[in-house]
What we know:
Radius of gyration: 16 Å
Strand order of the largest sheet: 1-4-5-6
Structural class: alpha+beta
Number of helices: 3
Number of domains: 1
CATH class: Alpha Beta
Distance between the termini: 42 Å
Helix content: 25-40%
Amino acid sequence: MVLEKEVLKAIGEYLTARRVFWFRNNTGAFAGSYKGKARFFRYGVKGSGDIFALHRGIFCSLEVKAPGKHPTDDQEAFMERVRHHGGAAAWFDNIDEFIAWWEATFPEGGGTNVVR
């Protein structure tokens, strides 16, 4: 069985090979204490994608799931907000679906023209 982290790694490798500006977006929460007081810390935006990319001036939020899993309501809402504001957002549970989506969203090979 393919793991979510394997799909995530494959997508990252694809984006890197095409010289796309991207990074892993982490969200979550943890409990701790400071000077004897209990604290709860949340980081990131709830529902945001696992990968953020900026390609050809378009912000992309990519949610990655293990095969057979689906986005939460918060994740669906975040993707809709991104699309509403002109970005690209989608979720994937395998690399082939991602590649098909990326190449349809960014035709002509989906790469970046880099000037040095």
